[in-house]
Write a structure and sequence with these properties.
The protein is α/β, with parallel strands linked by helices and 240 residues long. Helix content is 25%, strand content 21%. It is globular, with a radius of gyration of 16 Å. 48% of the residues are buried. The structure holds zinc ion (2 copies).
Length: 240
């Protein structure tokens, strides 16, 4: 079956994410836009994933619990998990590798945690957009060890992209896919960086109006977060 997806979204937990980007609003906007599945990928945290998952279930939208990991090299990698337990366990591991700098909400923006009714439940005090101590080559094996998968984010961009920082997406890192930003033209798929990779197009929405319309789809055997994770695993690999 064909699932229209937007697999890279930020909630109000990301300091750069708009405060209107509650998980309820993200799910609602995704439904309006005709999407079947979204992934919540806040910077270095899965803190709002369980609430997004619950609200997604209530509104019949597939929510993939995820994270946009900032590696030690300042590269962004999208990590996706089959359920909130896996995402939160991965999140706890990533937290051990945070660089602990207090957030300055007046400068960077608030980092708002939401409960399963989409109400504010607190704020993350440490700044989430700082590089972690996890090297890029560890991103995929680490995500897989928690039942998930990973791929480099917005490889067509200059800022925080693996291609810009390392000059390529090294084959030995094992990724099955690369993400192109919404603004990348169709020609970008022929870009040498994408050669041999599945290509995923996502909005990286920090504001509700940036969410994708139904224009990127995956062909999957079932309508679930687990099926989406499996699609992005390296060939011949399965998670436990
Ligand atoms: Zn990014
Ligand atoms: Zn992002």
């Amino acid at each position: 079956m064909k699932l229209f997806c937007d697999l890279h979204l930020h909630s109000c937990l990301s300091p750069c994410g708009d405060e209107e980007n509650t998980v309820g609003n993200l799910v609602g906007m995704a439904k309006l836009n005709g999407l079947d599945a979204i992934a919540l990928t806040d910077h270095n945290t899965a803190g709002n994933c369980r609430s997004a998952w619950t609200i997604g279930r209530q509104m019949d939208l597939v929510v993939v619990p995820g994270m946009e990991l900032t590696t030690a090299e300042d590269i962004h990698v999208v990590c996706l998990f089959p359920d909130p337990d896996a995402a939160e366990a991965f999140g706890a591991e990533v937290r051990k590798n945070w660089t602990e700098i207090p957030n300055r909400p007046d400068i960077f923006g608030r980092q708002i945690l939401l409960d399963e009714r989409d109400e504010p439940a607190g704020e993350e005090p440490l700044l989430l957009t700082v590089a972690t101590a996890i090297p890029a080559e560890r991103a995929l094996p680490l995500a897989m060890s928690f039942g998930g998968t990973a791929f480099p984010a917005h490889v067509d961009k200059e800022a925080n992209s693996m291609a810009a920082v390392l000059g390529s997406v090294p084959k030995e890192y094992g990724f099955a896919a690369v993400e192109l930003s919404k603004g990348a033209g169709r020609a970008a798929e022929d870009f040498y960086l994408c050669e041999g990779y599945k290509v995923v197009r996502s909005s990286d929405a920090h504001y509700l109006w940036q969410l994708s319309e139904a224009d990127f789809a995956l062909e999957l055997p079932e309508r679930s977060a687990a099926a989406i994770v499996k699609y992005f695993l390296p060939e011949g690999r399965e998670n436990p």
